[in-house]
Please model this.
Amino acid sequence: MPVSEAVSKQLAVIPNSTIRFNAALSSYTRFGIGGPAAVLVDTAHPEAFLMALDVVRSASVSNLVIGGGTNLVVADEGFDGVVLRYRGREIRQEGELLKVDAGAVLQDVVDFSIAAGLRGLQTMTGIPGYLGGAVYGNAGAYGHSIDEIIVRVHATDGQQVIAFDNAQCRFTYRDSIFKCQKEWVILSAEMRFEKGEPCELAREAQEIRAIRDAKYPPSMKCAGSIFKNLYFNQLPPQAQRQVPSNIVREGKVASAWFLEQTGVKGMRVGDIQVAPYHANLIYNDGQGTAKDLAAVIGELKARVRERFGFALEEEVQYVGFESVPA
Model:
């Protein structure tokens, strides 16, 4: 449902928030791609965010909650609805427990935990985005994921705030209940760490950061890996037979391996480029469009499906598309 003048007026008077009309979503996504949102409401105050969410949901207006925009692919036509962004970023420490607002930049949380001598997030250094998005997608790296330290997640449906314990979050590989039930929006998370030595944690993080920055330069307009890795035992038999045993790690096979076998490295459509050194990395090399990005993603999926008999699953989320790349 389009945004009415009445709804716009209700949103405009919410205190401690900023409202923008026809806001270019390319400015709010890591790809730097996407048309305008009819309305964008930005706030660092939980009360203001809850008020805005209640307004749009009560009026049945099309709405979308975003964080750092790391994994968003926004259509060139944009989004004809209200985009809400929550930027509350307070970090509170209680011994080995951190209570963190969903709008906190993930790297800030990593740095805070390292300085405090808390082990558990150091392997996620360099991962862009907000904490809320990391919890939403169960982000991880180097054999660890954020669900390992989550004690409790506070989320709202616009009417009430409920605490989800770790089990209720239903974390799986790059997934959580919040991906399946999008009416629940993450407001904050509580994480319990192990004690560690700050210097040792910093050294580990620096080594990981050097590797990550070489693969995904901070200035690169990309979402990191496009596709999820695959569990070997869930692959069809014809695919399993083609996978060398030495590339199966912790029961998973990197999507990049399957993509490499289909010759996609270096593929380019317009300014959308598959990295010549990493088949699971697609980036915007200039003025790329969502149409071209979707075309490249669709081509990569088609090649793997034809060669190996299964469909790759994206880590990215599509906004404003009538259909996702097949």
